[in-house]
Amino acid sequence: MKPQLLKLLTVGLITLAVFSPALLVWWRIWHYHSELMDFQPVVLSSDRAALHMATIAMPSDGRLSLSDADKSSIKAVALALVPLAFLSFIIAVSSGFWVGLWLSDRHQTRRTITLKQQIATLERLWQQSIY
Question: How far apart are CA 102 and CA 91, in angstroms?
Answer without folding.
Answer: 16
